[in-house]
Amino acid sequence: MVGVVIGLALLAFWLYSLFDVITTPEEEVRNVPKPLWVLVVTLVPLVGGIVWMLRGRPQPDREAWPVPPQPGTRRHSAPKGPDDDPEFLRDLDRRMRGEDG
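The chain above was modelled as a monomer; its predicted structure follows.
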């Protein structure tokens, strides 16, 4: 039973890798031409799929890390949540005490 599950998992991984190679646009494939990737994944299923995932798939565009503000400068942005807004917290405290003034 365990062998069947492992076999099905390997088959699923191989099919996923093969379809991923086939559907990836030619200009986004890395390192070797797309037809060669198809051959590698088809002829060497497990290793070919792993190598495709690591070395052939297109890399997602990475966003630049935000630059932290310099010490002493004030950031002009809205609070991230109500619990970060001192004015909201004062108003909440006033309302909880029953001071609706």
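The chain has four helices and no strands.
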